[in-house]
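I am going through a labmate's work and have reached the protein record below. What it holds is a sequence and that sequence's fold in token form. Please read both lines and tell me whether the tokens look consistent with the sequence. Do not assume that whoever made the record got everything right. Thanks in advance; the entry in question is below.
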Amino acid sequence: MGALLHRLGRFAVRRRWFVITGWVVVLAVVGVCAATFSGPTSSAFQIPGTESQRAIDLLDEKFPGTGGAAARIVVAAPAGHKLSEPQYQAVQERALAQVAKAPQVISAVTPAKATVSKDGRIAFGDITYAVPVDKVSDASKDALRAIAAEVRAAGLQVEFSGGVVATTAAEGNTEVYGLLIAFVVLAITFGALVSAGLPMITALVGVALGLLGIQAISGAVSLSSTAPTLALMLGLAVGIDYSLFILSRHRQNLADGMAVDDSIALATATAGGAVVFAGLTVVIALAALSVMGIPFLTVMGLAAAATVAIVVLIAVTFVPAMLAALGTRVNAGRIGFLSRRVTAATRGDRMNFGRRWSGIVTARPWLTVLVCVAATVVLALPATSLKLGLPDDSSKPSSTTERRAYDLLTQGFGPGFNGPLTLVVSTPGRTDAAALAARGAGDLMVTPDVAAVGKPVANKAGDVAILQVTPRSGPSSDATKTLVGQIRTGAAKFRAEQGVQAYVTGTTASNIDVSDKLAGALPLYLALIIGLALILLMVVFRSLLVPLKAVVGFLFSIAASLGITVFVFQQGHLGGLFNVDTAGPLVSFLPVLLIGILFGLAMDYEVFLVSRIREHYVGHHDPSEAITAGMATTARVITAAGLIMISVFGSFIFGNDAVIKSIGLALAVGVAVDAFLVRMTLVPAILKICGHLSWALPARLGRILPDLDLEGSHLTAGAQTHHPDASTSATPGADSA
């Protein structure tokens, strides 16, 4: 791999303007495709094969129109007034008559059929559409907004749930703050503005390509609304870090007296090898989400994986070309005291941070291991009470109409009215579906957690009927999940006795099915990732202990990350700090995403650190000195890379989307634990304890495994042969890493 990347680096140096222009052209073409073929994203979560999805498919076939979107309109009179007052009654009748005439609407509530609270202040009704929510036209949405504005002008409060009319809370582009922090970290690391700016530019190019590509395919593929944000989050973090790895190695080579072109090619071969491997692990882990058979998660993983793959290609082609175009100007824009500090560390005029930290953590390695394990256990403890689910409107900011509608329904009728269930009864070859559904309604009326049961509605053929069941508890509560299980148990008995089909569906039931499917697939996915890590790291480091140690560290990071996320989002601690309005279950796909993403990011630091330690061990066979030398040359870069990822992921915590906030916090904590507690503290201590055993590999296995030469030891040796006086020559401002 090293030789191949060395040739690629040489090509990028020789044809620098061709490479740079080529990427600009690709960006322009993808941008045009995005503008031409883009389509809407969706927040719906569906899994083929679940009971709720089978019911939806049955309704689409036998009961056309019932599978379309449904908007719930909630109206509230001012405090101390009732909706039945004459000045409010007339405007309601006029508005609802207009709703029935809106485009794509097939049925709408009338004032006589609206459900009114006991105090007469709050009422709600449903509007049914002929198309799914993502197909509702802008004209239809605008009609609802105009009608709502007229009602509000009369002094009534009007809110909507169901997703047809939604409030998009202003996110404020919080990722900008992460980018600003990343630039400051890079400036401190390199002591030069040009060096600090280059990783930012290359990361933005990669992210732009990834997001535009996702937008271009959104017209043909159903994309989750979370997919673009996840791609943005990952692309920025790894894009900056991958450029940082290559740039820091280039600056070190310059400090060792190498010519610019030779330095770029060698940096691409060495640090670029770590980048390719680390990026490959992220891509594989994200793409592996497709094996779970969950469409929205598959698309989300593939979209993020494609963005990371683009970032890796840019790192090993565009970055070398940019470095060649800059030449010695890569150190331009030096920041006085910072540049002098970096130069002093490079020349050995002051004790290197990595060397100092290595001495601390390896002085008493067993104590270091004990402290790391204890800290991980404390951070991970809240994860023992982990609960998974999909977010409902109660998790949205109070500035959104969905959240205000949720609060009004809870206040007027109870939390269960925010997530009604739909019982579907099918009697193939018979016409008594409504009668059988009515029998089921009688049984449900005496169920403790049922607040209300509607009247059965049958299709024209009479062989399918639907029945709405309203729980007393909220959509994401354990009581509602228990109720769904009880109804399904009764439906199964009903099927056995009557020979008919009976299913429970609706948004709440679908969310429960999605969460259960994800929870069931999690152990298999975790086993797949662990097995993948062991094989890949065994090939890269030609060792048995290093892969085992890396996997244990990865599990530590996952446990600590989940623990803190549960502590904040599920248990409600520090809610004011992170602007978490309502505590509740973690989004059900968070653990799966966290495992896939953090696995790849953990391998970044593992490969970058351990490959340098192995490089020194191969050359000198002194395990203790190899740890010190490896830490001395990588600690500064790993610290910078970790802080950059934390700042990028952390910036998403302060947005308004609860799902994105929880993902941002989980990844920020996971990277912090993995970079600083595991890789820079636990790993050196374990390598110190194991000594030569760290690099042991049975001879038979050694003959089977390929030698990737990821650290480019052959190329490095060649470079040292051609530069015997390299250690006495240094380029001012170059980084020690």
User: Anything to note?
Assistant: The two ends are 22 Å apart (CA to CA). The chain has 24 helices and 14 strands.
